[in-house]
Amino acid sequence: MSVTPPSLRPRMLGRGAVNAIVGLSALYTLLPVLWLLLAATKDRGALFRSDLLSLGDFSLGDNLSALFSMEGGIYGRWYVNSLLYAVLGALIGAMVSVACGYAFDKYRFRHKEKLFGLVLAGVMVPPTVLALPLYLMASKVGVVNTFWSVFIPVLFNPFGVYLGRIFSQGYVPNEVLEAARVDGAGELASYFRVALRMLGPGVVTVFLFQLTAIWNNFFLPMVMLSDQSLFPVSLGLYVWNSSAVVTPDYYPVVVVGALLAVLPLVAAFVVLQRYWKAGLTAGSVK
Amino acid sequence: MAPFLVLLVVVFLVPVGGAVWLSFFSDDQPGLGFGPERTVFAGLRSYEAVLSDPTFLAGLGTAALYCLVYIPLMVVAALALGLLLDSGAVRLRRTAQLALFLPHAVPGIIAAIIWLYLYTPGLSPVLDLLAKADLTVDFLGVHLVLPSIVNIAVWSNLGYNVIIFYAALQAVPREVIEAAVVDGAGPVRTALQVKVPLVRSSAVMVMMFTLIWSLQLFTEPMLLSQSTPVVGSRFTPNMYIYDAAFTRNNYGLAAAASVVLLVVTIALSYGLSRWTNRAARAPEEAAR
After folding, report:
1. Helix or strand or coil: residue B25?
2. Fewer beta carbons within 10 Å, N or C terminal of chain A?
3. B150 to each of A44, B103, B139, how far by Cα in Å?
4. What is the pLDDT of residues A136-175, one digit of tens each?
């Protein structure tokens, strides 16, 4: 009764192996995060004994209060900075890039394709190459070590323009725009009232990608900022980690600080799942 | 549109131009302001200095070695996982994708911190387990430090690339696969001979972006350099640039190094696209 036909057996075996490989890969990606989660609940002693599973000394609360009181509670400041850079920057950046992509798609103007080529070149040039010249420019203008020195460069998102053009092609039919024009709507009005609503998912996608990029940004703030109260979380944790090499007291604080810094992005990705998948797919059908 | 063009000019074209311009000048009193009266035209002197500096060349060597290990590993692993997910044999496919993608939501510096702690004796449960089996591994030693950095990068980006491949594989027309099955191809043959050639453009894109980012390697070694003497302050080209500009205050040198790195990046990605184009054309011509 329970004898499997011979032809099915190798398939079952293959299926098991496939699932095992995928399962192991998932463990590989998940376990370090799990370690971070467990380590964040341990005091320094337990952290160094690395007995992570003992629930005896649950000190997440202590670690959190240590985190927010260390060096006059500067971590909270960094967190707010990161949120400002990332959320505001991504919001403005996404609006600008999608509008620009829309213009590339719907209007005809001189040197359009050459300009678009330049945008694509911008995708290829990584921001780290630009950081040093930007620093020198900023120092001439005198905005080094200010909020703006980090905020303005991160608005530039050529990949967002590229995505914006693709989304505009896909989501905004030309007939709708013509209908709006016939109804007497101006160009700006038809963009904001008609097209933008259709581009909504595209804007969210670009926003999400840019949010991640800015939140992860490390090189630019490192180059631009020397005032600790302007640091984003990434740079702050880097500095604290270098202190931890000398003063082990910093270890639990860095661990719990790192955990808190991961949370917003994980939350954003889980909530907005279908948008980033749409973005990745659009990007890969080049 | 206009605001973007302003950004394009201000934070892209001007800096690129500025870097090139600057690389021809030398600041003879380093560290003291940036007045034009102290800056002298140096022609190609900065380039000579950069290209004859063994530490810069060693950094380029490190980056090249890193690319040689990392890029094939990443493409093969991501493609394999994408194929497995696409094969339909995997349970909990959505959960698996989300799990694989999770590290992408972890900022690079924090990924580096997590792995640094997992590499640090005393902190790491992995090393403790190995110690119980009488194995001592020095992940931050001379031989393993580069693989350790590669591991951090693989961990961070694997899921992202898996999803790119998976999306491309899902777009392969089902009829093509059915035809292969009717012709008697097993699942493995279908995957390797039918599906893989059809997602070549995705593979090229993954390789291209991985290459560009690999040459910019900075965050991970910078963090590891706090904890191990093996990673020096000029370990990669980008660290060299940072060191030249902010430790040695030699902006001309740093700018020249930036331009060299940019040129190398463009040349390599151009070469890559040429090479893959030719490779793409060859089988088509053979089929004719």
Report:
1. strand
2. N
3. 29, 14, 12
4. 777 776 667 776 766 777 677 777 777 777 777 777 777 7
Query: Each residue of A66-87: pLDDT tens digit?
Result: 666 666 667 767 777 777 777 7
Taking each helix axis from N to C terminus, what angle separates A8-39 and B108-119, rounded to the nearest 10 degrees? 90
Say whether both A30 and A115 belong to one domain: no
Phi-psi sector, B186: left (phi>0), alpha (psi -120 to 50), beta = beta
All residues of chain A having their beta carbon less than 8 Å from the beta carbon of residue B205 are: 283-284, 286
Residues A28 and A95 in one domain: no
Contact residues, chain A, for B113 at CB < 8 Å:
237, 241, 254, 258
ipTM beyond cut 0.85 = no
The closest of B216, B202, B265, B168 to B62, measured between CA atoms, is B216
Which CATH architecture does the domain made up of B2-287 adopt? Orthogonal Bundle (1.10)
Q: What is the distance between the alpha carbons of residues A36 and A185, in angstroms, rounded to a whole number?
A: 54
Residue whose structure tokens are 């609006």: A95
How crowded is the C-beta side of A81, counted as CA atoms within 13 Å?
24
Smallest CA–CA distance, residue A100 to chain B, in Å, is 4
Q: pTM value?
A: 0.73
Number of domains observed in the structure of chain A:
2
The residue count of chain B comes to 288
Reported as a pLDDT band with limits 50, 70 and 90, residue B15 is: low
CA B148/CA B115 separation, integer angstroms: 9
In terms of Cα–Cα distance, which of A31, A43, A76 is closest to A251?
A: A43
